[in-house]
Hints:
With 279 residues, this protein is mainly beta. It has helices at residues 9-16, 33-39, 103-106, and strands at 47-50, 54-60, 66-68, 74-83, 88-97, 109-111, 119-122, 127-136, 147-157, 162-175, 177-179, 182-184, 193-204, 209-212, 217-224, 231-237, 243-249, 254-260, 269-270, 274-276. The protein has 3 helices and 20 strands.
Amino acid sequence: MRIRTTVAAVSGALALSAFAVPAAQADYEPKPASDRAAAFAAQAPADEIEGDTRITKVVVNGGKALSLGTTAKKTITAEVTATDAENIYEIHSFLWNGPGDKPEEDAIGFFGPDNPTGTCTVVNATTTTCKYSIEIDPAGMENKIAGTWKLWASAIGNDGDSHTNGVAGTTKILRASTLTANASPEPVVKGKTITITGKLARANWDTGVYAGYSAQPAKLQFRKAGTTTYTTVKTVNTNSTGNLSTTVTAASDGYWRWSFAGSSTTAPVTAAGDYLDVR
């Protein structure tokens, strides 16, 4: 089941109710996973512990950020490990974005996994790990929710104990970026001035197109022909339309490129090297 993003915090809180975990009961009797999921009806608590169930390890997308463009859907993976003396009955999770640590109050965007209970493996007598695939669709994204996303997770023990954590893990969903580089004139006489231009753009999820990214630092780098390492020559900021331009003195044959380290909302990118023949 996938939950698309929403910009309304109230709507988000209501939609999150589908993932709520009921408090443990003394007469708890396990039900089929589908029935349990259907019974989640009240809230998605931020952090709640009943008994000895504990979420012990969470890995989101292998620890890597996700770069998301304007059209192609991508998948984020999540692994949640939990323990209980009676082992784990099931684990639920979803990604959400918003301030604080309480998705039922703070969420302004969220995505749930296609399989609410994931694919689970019993590690040993007390430990289970569940894996999830969460599809991220650019059509459900807005620029204001680029950056850090949080993984809500809830584990339920076979004895009815539970542990819920609103921020069990984090990952970054960033606006994809593009960068070009061009060195001219070419060929050029050694000692003459050359101009290196380029453009930094990033995905605009609000409009569905890429647009220039202004006032951002980009490193101008050079790799001499016959070598494998680029060296930073200088740093230049993009202009109001994302364009880059600077001049240097031609010294030897080699490749020129721009490199952008990324920002809190935008993925890093490095342009392909443009070869310049110096004579």
